[in-house]
Design goal:
There is one protein chain. The protein is built from 16 helices and 16 strands. The strands form 2 sheets. A 10-stranded mixed sheet has the order 3-4-2-1-5-6-7-10-9-8, with helices on both faces. It has a 6-stranded parallel sheet with strand order 13-12-11-14-15-16, with helices on both faces. It has 2 domains: about 5-225 and about 440-455, Rossmann fold (3-Layer(aba) Sandwich); about 230-440, Rossmann fold (3-Layer(aba) Sandwich), CATH 3.40.50. It is globular and about 70 Å long. It has helices at about 25-35, 70-90, 100-115, 135-145, 160-165, 170-175, 190-200, 230-235, 240-255, 270-285, 305-325, 345-350, 365-375, 405-420, 420-440, 440-455; strands at about 5-10, 40-45, 55-60, 60-70, 125-130, 150-155, 180-185, 205, 210-215, 215-225, 255-260, 290-295, 335, 355-360, 385, 400.
Length: about 450
C-alpha cells in the first residue's frame, strides 16, 4: 500500500501537546495517515530560521513541521496568501493587495517546502497538497524530479476569469496547477469557473471523464465537496457538555427563540450583512421584540491584517447600535461574543437554536451549516437560513436560501423560519441530514484519494 503524504500550510495532526485532532478535516486525514503509515508536513506556526524538519509521532500519526523566518511569514502568509489570494478568490478585488514582494515570498516559501520535504518522499508515495497557500508546490516537486501521483484540493472558491486576470502573473499561477494529476474543488460552480479560465486564457479543452488538456498535459479536475465528521458531531450533540450547554441556553432564553450565527471574524462571512438583516427584521416586526434574540459567536482571526481589524471595529459599532436602538430593560436583542468554544458546547448551542443563520458573501463550502444540521433534534429540528453563495447551498437546498446582500431577504427568511410548522421543519431537515451523514468528511477523503489512486504510475 502506498503511503499518504499530506502537505498543508498548518498541520492539525494530534501531538502529545494537543492529543485531539483539530476539526473534521484533521479527523479524516489522520485516519488515512494512520492506515497508510503516512506523514503530514507543514509550517509549525513559529518563526525562526528554517532548519531541519521536526518529526513527531503520536497515536500512530507522524507530523513533520518547519519554522519560517519572520520575513517569509509576512510575505508568504500574511501577504500573498491572506492579503492577495484570499480576498481575490472571495471576489473582493477592492481588498486585494498586489505587492511584488508578496509574490516573491510566496514562491520562495513553496520552494523551501519542496527542498525540505522532497528528500523524505518515497517513489510510490501518494501526495496530497492542500489549499491556496501551496498552489505552486506540485510544480516545485516536479522540478525536483518527483514523478509520484500528486493531488491538490482547493478549500476556497475559484474566482471568475475576469477577477483572476487582475492578478499579476495569473497564468503562471494556474499553469503551476497542471503539475498535479488531480485537482479537487468544493462545488461544480468553482469547477466550472476553473474550466472557463482554462478555455479562455490557456486555450485548453475539456474532455470526457473530468479530464482537462492544455498543450500536451492532461489532468483530472473534480467537484468533491468536503463534509464534517457527521457521526462524531451527532455524538457530540448528545454529550454531557452539550446537554449542559443546551440547558443553559434554554434557561437563559426565557422562552425566547434563539437565532445563532457562528463565524470566524472574516469579511467573507457576511457578518455585517446578517446583522443588517436582523436589524431589518426588528424594524419591521416590532411585535416580535422580546420574543427573539441573536447570538453571534465570532472568534477573531488574522488580527495583524488591517482589513480584519476594520471588520471587527465595524461589527463592534453595529452591534452596539442595534442594542442601543432596540434593547429593553429586560431584553437584549443581540449577544455578540468574540471567542471560540469547544465542539461539544457548540453542538449544544446549535440544538437550542430555532434558527441557524449562515450568510457568507462567498464561501468555498461552510461547514457550520452542516454542523447545525447534524446537531438538531430529529423530532423538533431548527431551520437553517443559508446564503445562496455558500458552496454548501448545492447540497443543502432544503435550507431557506437567501441573498446575503439583501436585508429584506434575510428578514423575510427569519419571519418564515419562526412561523414554520414542526412538520415542515422536519421535512426540510431530514434530506439535509441524510446528505450531511452520507457525504461526510470520510466520504470526501475517499472520493479524492480514489481519483488520485486511479492515475497511472509513470513507467
Amino acid at each position: 500500500m502506498s503511503r499518504l503524504i499530506v502537505i498543508s500550510n498548518r498541520v492539525s495532526a494530534p501531538t502529545a501537546d494537543q492529543p485531539g485532532a483539530q476539526g473534521g478535516l484533521a479527523v479524516a486525514l489522520t485516519a488515512a495517515l494512520r492506515e497508510a503509515d503516512g506523514i503530514w508536513f507543514g509550517w509549525s506556526g513559529d518563526t525562526g530560521e528554517t532548519g531541519e524538519l521536526k518529526f513527531e509521532t503520536y497515536d500512530g500519526v507522524t507530523s513533520a513541521t518547519i519554522d519560517l523566518p519572520e520575513q517569509d511569514v509576512e510575505e508568504y502568509y500574511d501577504g500573498y496568501a491572506n492579503r492577495t489570494l484570499w480576498p481575490l478568490f472571495h471576489y473582493r478585488l477592492g481588498l486585494t493587495e498586489f505587492e511584488r514582494d508578496f509574490q516573491g515570498g510566496y514562491e520562495r516559501v513553496n520552494r523551501v517546502f519542496g527542498d525540505v520535504i522532497g528528500p523524505h518522499i518515497q517513489p510510490d508515495d501518494l501526495i496530497w497538497v492542500h489549499d491556496y497557500h501551496m498552489i505552486p508546490l506540485g510544480w516545485v516537486l516536479r522540478q525536483r524530479g518527483l514523478t509520484n501521483r500528486i493531488g491538490f484540493f482547493l478549500h476556497i472558491p475559484w474566482p471568475p476569469t475576469r477577477l483572476l486576470t487582475a492578478l499579476p502573473e495569473h497564468r503562471r499561477l494556474v499553469e503551476a496547477l497542471f503539475a498535479y494529476d488531480v485537482i479537487g474543488f468544493q462545488s461544480d460552480e468553482w469547477l466550472e469557473t476553473f474550466h472557463d479560465y482554462v478555455i479562455s486564457e490557456m486555450g485548453g479543452s475539456i474532455g470526457k471523464n473530468e479530464h482537462i488538456t492544455v498543450g500536451g498535459r492532461t489532468i483530472r479536475a473534480i467537484a468533491c465537496p468536503i463534509g464534517i465528521d457527521a457521526k462524531e458531531f451527532v455524538a457530540s450533540a448528545g454529550s454531557s457538555q452539550a446537554r449542559t450547554t443546551h440547558a443553559r441556553m434554554v434557561e437563559s432564553s426565557i422562552g425566547r427563540s434563539l437565532i445563532v450565527g457562528v463565524d470566524r471574524l472574516d469579511y467573507s462571512k457576511g457578518l455585517e450583512e446578517h446583522f443588517n438583516g436582523y436589524q431589518r427584521y426588528l424594524e419591521t416586526h416590532p411585535d416580535a421584540h422580546s420574543n427573539v434574540y441573536l447570538l453571534q459567536i465570532a472568534p477573531p482571526s488574522r488580527a495583524q491584517v488591517q482589513s480584519y481589524q476594520d471588520i471587527r471595529a465595524q461589527l463592534d459599532a453595529l452591534s452596539g447600535r442595534i442594542n442601543g436602538a432596540f434593547a429593553d430593560i429586560d431584553w437584549v436583542p443581540l449577544r455578540y461574543v468574540n471567542q471560540g468554544f469547544s465542539r461539544d458546547m457548540l453542538a449544544g448551542v446549535y440544538r437550542a437554536a430555532r434558527i441557524g443563520l449562515v450568510t457568507p458573501l462567498r464561501d468555498g463550502m461552510n461547514l457550520v451549516a452542516k454542523e447545525y444540521v447534524a446537531a438538531q433534534d430529529p423530532e423538533d429540528p431548527g431551520v437553517l437560513i443559508l446564503s445562496q453563495f455558500a458552496g454548501a447551498a448545492a447540497q443543502l437546498g432544503n435550507a431557506l436560501l437567501v441573498n446575503p446582500y439583501s436585508p429584506d431577504d434575510i428578514a423575510d427568511a427569519i419571519e418564515r423560519a419562526l412561523a414554520m410548522s414542526r412538520e415542515e421543519r422536519i421535512a426540510r431537515w431530514r434530506p439535509m441530514f441524510e446528505n450531511v451523514r452520507d457525504e461526510d468528511v470520510i466520504w470526501w477523503r475517499k472520493r479524492f484519494t480514489k481519483a488520485l489512486m486511479a492515475v497511472p504510475i509513470p513507467a
